[in-house]
Amino acid sequence: MALRCLGVFIRKEMTGEITRRISTSTTRANFLRESPNAHLNKTLLKRYTGLKYDQNKFVQCTYLWLDGTNEHLRLKDRVLKKIPERPEDCPNWQYDGSSTYQALGENSDITLVPRALYKDPFKAGENDVIVLCDTYKPDGSPTDTNYRAAMQAAYDKTKDLEPWFGIEQEYTFLDVDKRPLGWPANGFPGPQGPYYCGVGADKVIARDIVEAHALACIYAGVEFAGTNAEVMPAQWEYQIGPSLGMKAADDLWVSRYILWRIAEEFGVVVTFDPKPMEGNWNGAGGHTNFSTKPMREEGGIKCIEQAIEKLSKQHKKHIQAYDPRGGKDNERRLVGRLETSSIDKFSWGVADRSCSVRIPRGVASAKKGYLEDRRPSSNMDPYSVCNAILTTCLLD
């Protein structure tokens, strides 16, 4: 897939710096002055991250999980006395599910089961890790919003076909007043046109955060493919994958966490809302690219078209799986214009960004490759989306 290109050039001195942790900017713009996080003196933290301790004996682990909203993350830290090399080296842990919309108070212990490890770009230790987990009820069954377990089951049944996923994550920067970052307080910027893949202070907003995010993701072990400014000012996109099986969905959640953390330090809000501004402004999607080994082989276009035919017969099922509110968020975005298809009708075409499913021009020419499902919203749960695609295209 074309997503393999990184799209960011990493200078050696920048790479050297990131191998420790992302440095924090102390610049304060006027439009951030009301943000409590922007007021904190970030340089004070360096007094403590520089303290010496045995990093082979003490390892800080940030346990990360998806809460009951199906679109937000929670985390807490613990210290281990050994370096974990696999997720199984980290013990299961519990938390209060009644505070994360996942349990009632009288029986609220939810179990975290480690599933993937990433290097932590925010902690001081070379061996500190992010521990991505999924969640289980007291009886051992997955919580209601644990779609990772369902995707894992679907992947286990289809792994001989080597399914790949690549995800294009769009998002928007907001000021603390929830207006898009850099927009006039009592008006609007110029119409869409010059902002997409733009350059210049009059076209691009908060590139510092975007480039810090790219470096931190690469350092962490996320399969980060690239980034670009999007059509609406203050809107950006980055790409994950293509990756085999569970990795793209796992990577997407960790990349969102990293983005939220970096923006937190800058005093900026990140939203994955699929339609942050009403009117003639582009929404934000989570376009999902999918292929199998037969699709990537010579003549694979036939397998791609067969998968599209199956998707066309399950449109309602996919709309319900493609945003956290069963399609209600996408009702605001999939309006049949502004580079979207209609939520009520399935469509597909070659190089057509107004379709539900697109075959890129290069794929049509090569007669092999992948398909792009353009329906998922920017705030979608990638486990839910990828599970729906696997079950419809390969299992139903």
From TrEMBL:
Pinpoint the GS catalytic domain residues: 142-396
Protein name from the UniProt record: Glutamine synthetase
Tell whether Nucleus is among the UniProt keywords.
no
Tell me the organism: Polypedilum vanderplanki (Sleeping chironomid midge)
Keyword Ligase belongs to the record: yes
Against SUPFAM superfamilies, the record matches this protein to: Glutamine synthetase, N-terminal domain, Glutamine synthetase/guanido kinase
The record's listing under Pfam families reads:
Gln-synt_C (PF00120)
EC number(s) reported in the record: 6.3.1.2
Which biological process, per GO, is one annotated for this protein? glutamine biosynthetic process
Q: How does it assemble?
A: Homooctamer.
Query: What does the sequence similarity comment in the record state about its family?
Result: Belongs to the glutamine synthetase family.
Name the InterPro entries for this protein.
Answer: Gln_synt_N (IPR008147), Gln_synt_N_sf (IPR036651), Gln_synth/guanido_kin_cat_dom (IPR014746), Gln_synth_cat_dom (IPR008146), Gln_synth_gly_rich_site (IPR027303), Gln_synth_N_conserv_site (IPR027302), Glutamine_Synthetase (IPR050292)
Q: Which reactions does this protein catalyse?
A: L-glutamate + NH4(+) + ATP = L-glutamine + ADP + phosphate + H(+)
Q: Which UniProt keywords apply?
A: ATP-binding, Ligase, Nucleotide-binding
A single GO molecular-function term is: glutamine synthetase activity
Q: Which GO terms describe its cellular component?
A: cytoplasm
Fetch the PROSITE patterns from UniProt.
GLNA_1, GLNA_ATP, GS_BETA_GRASP, GS_CATALYTIC
Where would I find the GS beta-grasp domain in this sequence?
59-140
